[in-house]
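Shipment paperwork, digital attachment
Item: protein structure file
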Amino acid sequence: MIFPFKKPIQSKPTRKQSGDAAEDQALQHLNQAGLRLIQRNYRSPGRGGGEIDLIMATPDGTLVFVEVRQRSGESHGGAAASVSRTKQQRIIFTARHFLFSLATMPPCRFDVVAIDANGLTWIQAAFDAGM
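Attachment content:
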């Protein structure tokens, strides 16, 4: 008896795989715009810590802390709207932790790269840390 082979079922990418792909897309876009990668997925220690998806540098030396958000739909306001005040505070906390390791304080800003049904949107200076 011969058993027909079926194609393996294509499973959906995991949340991590989807997030990594979105970060790759954002990184490529930012590199093409002239920014240089300093660090990816920087994490601050401790219970209140957070993660910064991309830390980039502009040609003039400004450090750019980038949050990458991806949403398939806009039922809850889309990707950019998902960067809540709580999420912003965690990013700011983590950025401060990163900055304490530097000898001098460079100019900084917080950007969001939103990827949704409308494509990729780069929002420069999306929020302020009051630093």
